[in-house]
Amino acid sequence: MQETINSTLKKPSRLPLSLKVKYTLRARMEKGEWPVGTQLPTLPQLVDQYGVSRATIRTALDELEREGLIERTRGRGTFVIADISKQHWLMLPSDWNALIAQIEQLHVQFHYLGDGSSALPSDLNDGTAADIYWWTSRINVRDGLPYSFNTAYVAQSLYEAHRDEFEKEAVLTVLQRHFADQLSSARQVLTIQSSDAVVAGHLQMDIGTPLIKAIRIAKDPDGRILYAAQLHYRASCVYIEQDIKMS
């Protein structure tokens, strides 16, 4: 197993070796192998385990320390100080009502980035689009941590009917409150991507950090898109739970 890890670390890629080591060490914390209070192996031990230089290990530990996951004390060693095995607190529901209930329960805090009116972007248009949509871009925050960066689009006529609520509240809760009878179908597509400079900046992550991108679209009975959104979540916060049908 260790030989496999070492060969994978040394396999050529665009990712710096120090980041590979960092993610390898972080994974051991996420799996609960190193719970809070655990003393990490010494620098020579880590060098021997992963077959990399001292400088590479130091850089990886610097990153973990910067994230507040470990604490290094001269003469005592390096200790885990954060429980990241429980960081995956946000479930992405596959059910519309569960999604609405989750949003209401979270009491999300918003940082507004802007809004306006425009046509629906082509990558969100998989049906019949309205002529114009009101859009809003926001960062969702919990306990001071930005965990998602979202841009939502609502058919302009719906927005005009409840402008104040759409601007102050979660878009989906307002949509459900006033237009549930007009919503006939909804679809969500999830993909795992690497964060670019824009998303990384908004979510306070390193460029290239894994994230989950969600596309959500809700339509009326005639197939007209009433709501569409593109959402980017910190992958480190998310888990997905689904029932598996047995045939």
UniProtKB/TrEMBL annotation:
PANTHER family per the UniProt record, alphabetical: MANNOSYL-D-GLYCERATE TRANSPORT/METABOLISM SYSTEM REPRESSOR MNGR-RELATED, MANNOSYL-D-GLYCERATE TRANSPORT_METABOLISM SYSTEM REPRESSOR MNGR-RELATED
Domain of life: Bacteria
SMART domains, sorted: HTH_GNTR (SM00345), UTRA (SM00866)
Domain HTH gntR-type: start-end pairs: 15-83
InterPro entries associated with the record: Bact_HTH_transcr_reg, Chorismate_lyase_/UTRA_dom_sf, Tscrpt_reg_HTH_GntR, UTRA, WH-like_DNA-bd_sf, WH_DNA-bd_sf
Alphabetically ordered keywords of this record: DNA-binding, Transcription, Transcription regulation
Organism: Paenalcaligenes hominis
Listed Gene3D superfamilies: Chorismate lyase-like, Winged helix-like DNA-binding domain superfamily/Winged helix DNA-binding domain
The organism's taxonomic lineage, starting at the top: Bacteria, Pseudomonadati, Pseudomonadota, Betaproteobacteria, Burkholderiales
Protein name (record): GntR family transcriptional regulator
